[in-house]
Amino acid sequence: MKKTITVVGLGLIGGSLAIALRGFEDYEIVGVDVSQPTLRFAAEHGVADRVTEDAGAVIPGADVVILALHPRGIVRFLSEYRDRFQPGALVTDVCGIKTTVMAGAEVLPPEVDFIGCHPMAGTEFSGIEHAFGDMFRDSHLILTPRETSTPAHIALMERMAAHLGCKDVYKTTPEAHDAMIAYTSQMMHIIAVSVCDDQRLFSCKGFEGSSFRGCTRVAALDVGLWTELFSMNTPALLEVLDRLLENLQSYRDTLAAADAGTLSQKLAYSAARKRQMDLPGPDLLA
Amino acid sequence: MKKTITVVGLGLIGGSLAIALRGFEDYEIVGVDVSQPTLRFAAEHGVADRVTEDAGAVIPGADVVILALHPRGIVRFLSEYRDRFQPGALVTDVCGIKTTVMAGAEVLPPEVDFIGCHPMAGTEFSGIEHAFGDMFRDSHLILTPRETSTPAHIALMERMAAHLGCKDVYKTTPEAHDAMIAYTSQMMHIIAVSVCDDQRLFSCKGFEGSSFRGCTRVAALDVGLWTELFSMNTPALLEVLDRLLENLQSYRDTLAAADAGTLSQKLAYSAARKRQMDLPGPDLLA
Prior knowledge:
Oligomer: homodimer
CATH architecture of the largest domain in chain A: 3-Layer(aba) Sandwich
Largest interface: A-B, 91 and 90 residues
CATH topology of the largest domain in chain A: Rossmann fold
Low-confidence stretches of chain A: 279-286
Strand content of chain A: 5-15%
Mean pLDDT of chain A: 95
Helix content of chain A: 40-55%
């Protein structure tokens, strides 16, 4: 009998995962969602091998369950279905906060493993109609295994990552993940929305180039999701935001002092850091 | 006899322009640079129809001269060659600051036209080896004509823009250009270098996704060029930076207040602005 991977939540990420996982080893991909239009879209577009609205009917038969819900939804689902998972099952998720999710997974019985997962991929859109199987190609995948997670489960996650086309897999703690993501992801979103709050936004059309589009792309964010993510990681986010405010203020003051020599030195310092940071990553030069 | 477009400065932008302009109507494309390696590269790769280090020999025969130098270099070139341009010639440039350049063009005799030009395209690299003819495809091109610029010259610039593959051409004043560009371009560069000044930069490898790459890409900037650009537009840049600092601080304070309702409202406001701003530009959704 085929083994089963059940993806709960067929939004942008869950839908893309289901598409990308089709054909993975000998697994059948089952999609679960509560929305009828989403299920219809998934069925019509072959997003999974089969789809259902009835999580209770498929969770007990799933070898792997991927929770592609918002953080609070994941915690709720784990609590509601804690006794329905198959003994020996691997449960994982895709969400951008790991301490809250790993704490929520404590409700699971000891024979059900949970490995936190965060694929560093996505777009500024939501919903299954924007899902695409190539989403994870060349992106990082971060895992936060439990101390008790089995090597077999970790190896399974790594094979799934390879099937998704991920560039590499990093394993870390939930705390380290959340501290790092405050800088590399959450702060980028706060910058993007802050730039879009400027009074010039609408009048600047026709004057924007790739740097503006690159910086502000993610401002069109999923408000509910990001309210949760920011709220669950506030201390780490405040720490990096305060450093950003200092670093911006330092550039501002150097500009105001009209000292081209100092400005040039500062720019040389920052540009060299950026070049050094990118060095081993030729994909970053694309 | 063929008419001539002379591109002075075969760096990233000038080299890309020369490549992209080849085959434009019945013009011969002549490339000028002071660097022998650059000229050799240009000759070997067919960057222009012919190349030379001797600007003085080709300027008098040029129907169009495109100055693809740094701002101070443009001003110096205009001053040095003011009496060498052909009567009726059109001189233009490619640089990201227009007030300084248009003021520098005042030295030209009245029979030589100058139309400021800023193609909103580029990469974070420098030098002819990174030049490519598709650079300007789907980007905006901004013109700052003089009041005395002839309709024939403006039409010629528009035909060149179409040949480059530009999406559209905007005409504005040097002052309006510089104020707008402080927001859409210069501020993006200050953000990028400030983000790269964070102590976490090198340790975050493996945790960065497309939002981080999109925001910080331009931090690897050409230090000499951007020192000039920032120094020539400081008041406008300070104005938008001060608004950014306020908007970031407002998000920071909302986060610190741990009020999810207010945070959600703020995010909804900013995200809606971003979506509204992008609406008529389907290319922005790519």
